[in-house]
Amino acid sequence: MKIRFVSRVRVKAFKDGYESEGEDLILFGFNGMGVVSYEQELSGESGFFEETALLSKSAKAVVVCGCVTDTRGIKRKSALVAENGRLCGICDMLHALDGEVSVGAGLKIYSTKIGRMGVVVADDIAFPEAVKSLALCSADFIVCPFGRVQSTLQQVLLRAYAYLYGVPIFFCGEGYCAVANTSGSIAFSSPYSPVSVAFDSAQEYHLIQTRQRISAEE
Hints:
By secondary structure, the protein is α/β, with parallel strands linked by helices. It is 21% helix and 35% strand. The radius of gyration is 18 Å and the shape is globular.
């Protein structure tokens, strides 16, 4: 699988200057769209969703982009997913940490040409149950669009989750993008954008055995 991380460029500008490197997945952070009004999208005043869908068609890749969605003044951190020129869905962040945005509802796994993709939105990466739930629901890999990265906390969390839950995680934030593999290490990281990396997403599974005490009555 080849992944291109884009953390500082808008979707439209990226699409207009796009030159294919054979990517399977293009992952944007939260600078890809900024604030998106559902009303303006529906009325045709803006075209963020369309631009993202068109990029997925021209690139022949799955595209994931972070954004702040605005529903009549209610704002949520969200992630848009597009493939083959169509919008596959939008996921909302489940946990609001700063009070600036509202919470959404529901995790989702997308069946794509590159596998079953789980999406964790922004600060949800700080909550292990989100990643664990996607792993238990057979996600082949997890993507996380993020905003500005200001500490090493995310790197520690990525390594721990990938190891504990046995699923690789692709992370794209402003100032830091990374791939964490199931061995608990960072397979790739970079402060630059755009940047591409090839990653072998094949998972290794291990049989876990435990001993249980049998009571005398049995």
